[in-house]
Amino acid sequence: MPKAKWYAVRVGRRPGVYANWSEAENQVRGYPGALHKSFPDPRAAEGWVRAGQRHNPVITTTSLYRQSSKQLITDEDLELDTSPAEIKQRNSPAVLLKQRMDSLLTTEIKPCPAVEDPPLSAQQEEILCRILNGENYFFTGSAGTGKSVLLRAIIKAFRQREADERNDKEDKWKRYLSGEDRNGQGNEVKRWKLGVTASTGMAGVNIGGSTVHSWAGIGLGELPAQKLYENILRNKITAKRWKSTGALIIDEVSMIDSKLFDKLEFIARKIRKTEKPFGGIQLILSGDFFQLPPVTKGHINNCSFAFEALSWSKVIPRENMTSLTRVFRQKENRFVDILESMRKGFIKPQDVEVLRGLARDVKYPEGIEPIGLYPQKAEVAAINSARLEALETPLQIFSSFDVPGTNSHGWALDSRQATECLNRNTIWPQDLELKVGALVMLVTNMQDGVLVNGSTGTVVDFMTLSEASAVNIHPAAGNYGSAPDPKVAWPVVEFIPSKHASGKVAKRVVVPQMSVDVLNAAGRAEATRHQIPLILAWALTIHKSQGQTLERVKIDLNNIFVEGQTYVAISRAVSLDTLQLLNFSAHKVMAHSRVIEWAKPFEQEQKDEEEWDELLAGANFDF
Ligand SMILES: Nc1ncnc2c1ncn2[C@@H]1O[C@H](COP(=O)(O)OP(=O)(O)OP(=O)(O)O)[C@@H](O)[C@H]1O
């Protein structure tokens, strides 16, 4: 006798236990993120379905395709008379996206505004100019000196140049075709193709680029350089990218090790058939070697830095390395001075006292807690889940909807690969668990730069867009990708107004589902995640905080394990007043000795030059 089976559907059109597969299949076929399992015992099956919803009296999801369990599901919804093939067709992401795009929303949603950056300083301008002149360049500087702002300005200027050249080319063709100009065929215009990359996926997403590994088509980059080169030759798209690129940006170059840097340089020369450094590609590097070091297999101290690569000095001449000197993030001189010496692994006894004194509780005016920074992933997960558990309000789970695209080799990803790619490269969560009272951090920029990546707030309610609109709470303007589901109750968040943002902050906003892309080297989506751009913020790893400005921050240095970590964590804060620092001691201030040695002459030389310039500027030559 065949063994009896019960089919449990935890996530699907109608969760429940079904006696035969065809019924269960109707619930899960074509339903993104569906979860089902078979059991020999119906009670076990029911228990499994309920376990998934135990803390979840109302499952609301951001997914375009899941229904809120608040709604009644009719037989029509179940499409019982429809063949699975038709259901699949109807529920295909493209069709559903279109339907949702077409669904009318009464609330006005503005498109995502570009981040509004401050005007560049004279030093930033000068570097931009030299880079636009075609020079290879490495710019560094302490945390908060505007490296990211400068990088965005560089990308913008290159994009503008690309657009101008496209227009030029089109004009030339038009003139050629009309017989006006028989010589100019449009082909001779030099292409300024820019590759935008970073050493890590998250840094790549932040600048609208990809990882340098993905751009270069080298996987983890562990094979010998010659083998990597041969592999690239086998993929026409990747080989063409190497050949046609005019300039390449690598952000957070401090997290690339010397071997990888040399391999890239070797590949560039081989593939472009020239002995020019880096195959003649203009290289634009940014990063701070005093922050987090490269992640190397084995012991963390085995790392070798990009500046130790054999090819570094050939690619970046000494006079093309600049350290940005003005710190913008912190305004207090005392704090800036402490950070400056801490960056180099040194701390004065009187500063130790100042930092130890920061162990006190800080009372903030709006009562919103600070973001917690911790060195290790495990403690972050434990703290967030314990704090969430402690809230007595109902749990809401929002699951992402991940859409696969194509990778840098031109191959299509499947949905599992898309989800893995998004988990690896973005901070946007696959499953976001929220309750009223949860401390959250925004992971994208919104509302004309008022609410920014790093803004913190508390979830105060869950509302549909129309419920919110009725009480004058509006959705945050962001990159929606598709219109948010008007039936889903989205989190309403009360944000702390950011001192760094200009404009008036709508303190309470609804934060609906938005979208984030992980881009491939061609600038197209490798994978797209539709999700609410929030993460729990009682705790965040120091690694994930790199690059951010945090208005209120509490740091626990208990488990610090690598050079640069203490400096990265403390330099996220904007002032000593809004910083709580636990378990600080002088020996936790660590900088890598090889970085100190390398940077000393070049930063000192620059300091001497600046002092000399200041002296000359103040001098009176009127004698
Ligand atoms: N020229 C400028 N004028 C005024 N503010 C600036 C300028 N450049 C940068 N800032 C501000 O300084 C802060 C830090 O800038 P940014 O994030 O670019 O620094 P960073 O060097 O990349 O820092 P980190 O190394 O920590 O990632 C931001 O709030 C930014 O808006």
Automatic annotation (TrEMBL):
Portion annotated as DNA-binding: 565-584
InterPro entries given in the database record: AAA+_ATPase (IPR003593), DNA_helicase_pif1-like_DEAD (IPR010285), P-loop_NTPase (IPR027417), Pif1-like_2B_dom (IPR049163), PIF1_helicase (IPR051055), PIF1_RRM3_pfh1 (IPR048293), Ribosomal_bL9/RNase_H1_N (IPR009027), RNase_H1_N (IPR011320)
Lineage: Eukaryota, Fungi, Dikarya, Basidiomycota, Agaricomycotina
Coiled-coil residues: none
Protein name: ATP-dependent DNA helicase PIF1
Subcellular location: Nucleus; Mitochondrion
Function field: Endonuclease that specifically degrades the RNA of RNA-DNA hybrids. DNA-dependent ATPase and 5'-3' DNA helicase required for the maintenance of both mitochondrial and nuclear genome stability.
Organism: Kwoniella bestiolae CBS 10118
Residues spanning the membrane: none
EC assignment: 5.6.2.3
Residues where ATP binds: 141-148
